[in-house]
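USER:
I wish I could look at a protein chain and see how it folds. I am handing you a single protein, as its sequence and its fold in token form. As I understand it, each token names a local backbone shape. I hope you can help me see how the letters and the tokens relate. The protein I mean follows directly.
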Amino acid sequence: MEKFLSFDEIKKSLENRETDCKTIVNHYLNNIKTKAHLNAFVEVYEQSALQQAEEIDQKLAMGKAGKLAGMVLGIKDVLCLTSHTVNASSKILEGFESQFTSTAVQRLINEDAIIIGRLNCDEFGMGSSNENSVHGKVLNDLDNSRVPGGSSGGSAVAVQANLCTVSLGTDTGGSVRQPAAFTGLVGTKPTYSRVSRHGLIAYASSFDTIGVFSRNVKDNARVMETMAGPDDFDSTASRKPVPNYSELLHFGKPVKIAYLKETIDSPALQPEIKENTLAVLNRLKNEGHQVDEVNFPLLDYVLPTYYILTTAEASSNLSRFDGVKFGYRTPNAHNLESMYKLTRSEGFGEEVKRRIMLGTFVLSASYYDAYFTKAQKVRRLIKDFTEDLLNKYDYIIMPTTPTTAFKFGEHSNDPVAMYLEDLFTVQASVSGVPAISIPNGKDEKGLPIGLQIMANSFKEADLYAFAEYLSASN
């Protein structure tokens, strides 16, 4: 029987003195070695994790440990941790060592969470399959021939394969929710600005959020409530107070739920996902909740809007990686101009170069108004529509993904087909509202199906309570 599948189980074992933090860390280290073929971890912090564990065991003995003592955490390879390498799974950041720790990670360390290592991902968070990493692809533990989703594929598989208790990913357009759906986990994207982005290597600054993977809703809520809140290092972080989400999981009132007709009727939607989503909606209706079908006429514009704006921001954000100050520098340069060109050509992968080029194009003088400015206006329309809907309804429910986990190479030569994997997740990202993916059964091949729930901005407490209610009755 697998051990330490939830933090409640870990806490109980520690309280009963049936185990200690060092034993827990060793348990996960053994699992990581056994399942090394999954390629979830880029680097394992064995020595520092065991040292952390010993220190926390001493704190526990004195009754001075933080509320996350015993929780073992993996972090996506875009989050900084002092004196540890971080390279966003890209050659361009080869050998780069963090000079500080990201606020989100530091807050977890302050509560005695143990960081066990950094996790593989699509380069700079750009991808939906974890096939775009300089460290190689991550394998889905349920079926090694299938993708784990992306970009936070390593973070998803680390929890799926019981290599850590929970993990951190980042969600720009679905990069936590989509892999959570593919691996049968709970994955959360908070409201934009709810969690500080300080120490997160940027992809698209007005979309990026730090999210959480877990096996259950309560563990997810615990991590989120610890990370969230204002931060002097990030002026975009909200100053709104943070409720104790994990203590507010009770749910017992009738609510109003909307589902989008266009997502359920989408020709891209796998039949079993449609069937399982409708089953949940029917059950909610039978339990006395108001469930209404609504039209979302802007669905066709969400994905183009997202990719125009995020590639534009990526083009700007990634211009700093030039081989001059840090990271990879080409050995083949013969002058300054060739050093810039060759460093970026050799250092970035194909997908990152594709997005930089697209972003540079939409920001160019001739096309700025035709693409970028127009996309900003459409983003406002999508945001207003979504918020209006969430002012009338408590939640929006839809499938997390159009399909279950696909096979490696299936979409590799068709970028548009790959981008369509984000069809249902980008609305929450464009609108900035929180969303969660929870497991919702399996298809005929035994592959997990995800159910996505969206709530209004800063309503994470309600979102977690409703997700717990649905999870408990699934």
